[in-house]
Amino acid sequence: MPEPTASPISPPRKVSELVVEHLTDLVERGEWPVGSRIPAEPELVAQLGVGRNTVREAVRALEHAGILEPRRGDGTYVRAASGLDAALGRRARTSDALQVLEVREVLERGAARLAGSRHDGGAPAALRTALARQESAARDGDEQAFRAADIAFHAELVRAAGNPLLAELYDGIDHVLVRTLATDAHGRHHRDVPGHREVVEAVAAGDADAAERAVETTMAAVRAYLLAREPGADA
User: Which InterPro entries does UniProt cross-reference here (predicted)?
Assistant: First the structure.
């Protein structure tokens, strides 16, 4: 009879690792949304019941991961919704904007096709609401609201595909390309939201081909805008 073998014993995990997991979970669940400021260090110490050094170590680890961002004199903010989002953002920031757009177009065209083939009754309503906010901001000439609504519309279209991983991949790319465009130029560039109403109607009709074509129209407008911004382009 073979002698029993001992199983390896895992060492106890550091408290700071548990705090990192907890804080990451708060970000991923949206309790700390991207762009929000996290509680100050004394508050986290009181809320979590751990020492100041433990909190500091955990926050620093998330800063290194690209999820949190310290701002001198203004606290610490959520920079990315997940480690994947942060990694995609780092990689995309080193790429040419047109290359990033190509990746975004592949993801969004695929998402539109999936959304058009899913026959999800709730997707068209959510898209129409997002589009209405964008068109309202365009009519009011509110560039900041228009830009935020444009981001929300594209994110809603990708969510309509029904694939959470696709949505997360897209958001990492979207952070870099859409959210870094100059607000005033971005608003003027496609205030008429080309292709947006068409993609909504295509998704509502369950027409995957038309949904993809509508996204191509939108991406063509974005590409023209990016090319116009290049050095030497006509004003």
Answer: GntR_C, TF_FadR/GntR_C, Tscrpt_reg_HTH_GntR, WH-like_DNA-bd_sf, WH_DNA-bd_sf
At residue 141, φ and ψ (nearest 5 deg) are 70, 20
Structure tokens at 145: 């609201």
Topology annotation, domain 84-229 = Four Helix Bundle (Hemerythrin (Met), subunit A) (1.20.120)
Residues counted in the chain: 235
pLDDT tens readout for residues 51-89: 999 999 999 999 988 889 999 888 999 887 776 666 666
Q: Are 130 and 158 in contact (CB under 8 A)?
A: no
190's enclosing H/E stretch is none
The architecture that CATH gives domain 15-79 is Orthogonal Bundle (1.10)
